[in-house]
Every structure is written in structure tokens, then in C-alpha cells.
């Protein structure tokens, strides 16, 4: 007789007190740590420094904005947003450049909360769309974004880059 054992894993639970808020200067180190973890997930090594992140989030001319998910005094996720513009249409948009949730909190809805807050922040900034991209083979991300009502669009052309320094 062949017996099949079904091992049950403990269900992940979202922290009782979850706060999604705008990043603050005191969050820099925890965000840097998570950016490094995000890069690691993709086989990369983060090169972002604290001074770069401080300049881009809180400097005299902020370049990006960030939302953080906080529970128990610890940051457990983030989303970085970058403004976009479609000149031919005169439309503002926001790129959800990066979203990350710490491994021990994935699958609890925190990513969905970060996307919902990003959507709200984009609307408040007068944006008519929120954009996000995922690597071709990242099917888990594709499903997540489709479940969050993002619509896949065709990618056309090439992106060219020129170093300025």
C-alpha cells in the first residue's frame, strides 16, 4: 500500500498592525537592506549607497518617492515610485519601479497593500496611469500584477542608454 503524506505548512499571517506610509529619512538603512535583498533575488548586487538614496528621496530635488510597509517597528516591504510623462498625450503617470516584501512576510497581502497605496499616491499626483514591468520569465510577478488589474501591453523597440559621465 502506498501512502501519501500531505505536509501542511503553517499559514502566513499578516502582522496585526501594518502601516503603509511614505518613507522617512530614518528609514534609509532598512530600505537599503531591502534593496540589496531585492537585487539578490534577481542575481544582482545592489550598488546603491545611503547618500544616493538620501539625495534621491529627501534631497533638495527629490527624484523618486518611496512607500514602506512597517510592522512592529521594522520595515518589511517597500515600493519605489518614479514619475512618467507621455508627451504626445499630455498624460502624467507613475512607474512602480520596484516593489519588495521580505521573504518571511510574502503571501500575506502586504504587496497588494503597497500597490493600492502606490495607486492612491499616483492619483493624488494627478496621474492617469500606474505602470510596472517584470522580467520576461518572472511568471509569479506577471500573475501578481494581472491579479491587481494591471493589463499587459506589448513591448516595442529598444531602449538605448548613453552614459553622461
Describe this structure in words.
The protein is of the alpha+beta class. It has four helices and five strands; from the N terminus they run βααβββαβα. The chain has helices at 28-41, 50-58, 110-124, 139-147, and strands at 18-22, 65-71, 74-86, 91-101, 129-131. It has a five-stranded mixed sheet with strand order 1-2-3-4-5, with helices on both faces. The chain is globular and about 45 Å long. Mean pLDDT is 89; it is low at 1-11.
Give the key terms:
165 residues; alpha+beta; five-stranded mixed beta sheet; 24% strand; disordered N terminus
Helix and strand layout, with pairings?
Layout: E1 18-22, H1 28-41, H2 50-58, E2 65-71, E3 74-86, E4 91-101, H3 110-124, E5 129-131, H4 139-147
Parallel strand pairs: 4-5
Antiparallel strand pairs: 1-2, 2-3, 3-4
Give the amount of beta strand, in percent.
Answer: 15-25%
What average pLDDT do the residues reach? 89
Level of helix content? 25-40%
Helix/strand order: EHHEEEHEH
Radius of gyration, CA atoms, in whole angstroms? 18 Å
Outline the low-pLDDT stretches. Answer: 1-11
Oligomeric state as shown: single chain
How many strand units? Answer: 5
Number of helices: 4
Largest sheet: 5 strands, mixed
Task: Please list the strands of the largest sheet in the order they lie side by side.
Answer: 1-2-3-4-5
**Spatial separation of the terminal alpha carbons:** 70 Å
Question: What coarse outline follows from CA principal-axis ratios?
Answer: globular
The helix/strand class is alpha+beta
Amino acid at each position: 500500500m502506498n501512502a501519501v503524506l500531505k505536509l501542511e505548512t503553517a499559514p502566513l499571517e499578516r502582522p496585526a498592525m501594518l502601516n503603509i506610509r511614505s518613507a522617512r529619512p530614518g528609514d534609509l538603512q532598512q530600505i537599503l537592506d531591502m534593496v540589496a535583498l531585492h537585487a539578490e533575488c534577481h542575481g544582482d548586487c545592489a550598488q546603491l549607497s545611503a547618500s544616493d538614496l538620501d539625495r534621491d528621496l529627501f534631497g533638495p530635488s527629490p527624484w523618486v518617492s518611496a512607500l514602506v510597509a512597517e510592522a512592529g517597528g521594522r520595515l518589511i516591504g517597500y515600493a519605489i515610485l518614479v514619475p512618467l510623462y507621455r508627451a504626445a498625450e499630455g498624460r502624467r503617470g507613475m512607474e512602480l519601479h520596484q516593489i519588495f516584501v521580505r521573504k518571511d512576510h510574502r503571501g500575506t497581502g502586504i504587496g497588494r497593500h503597497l500597490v493600492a497605496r502606490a495607486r492612491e499616491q499616483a492619483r493624488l499626483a494627478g496621474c492617469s496611469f500606474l505602470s510596472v514591468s517584470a522580467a520576461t520569465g518572472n511568471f509569479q510577478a506577471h500573475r501578481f500584477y494581472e491579479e491587481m488589474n494591471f493589463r499587459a501591453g506589448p513591448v516595442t523597440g529598444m531602449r538605448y542608454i548613453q552614459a553622461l559621465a
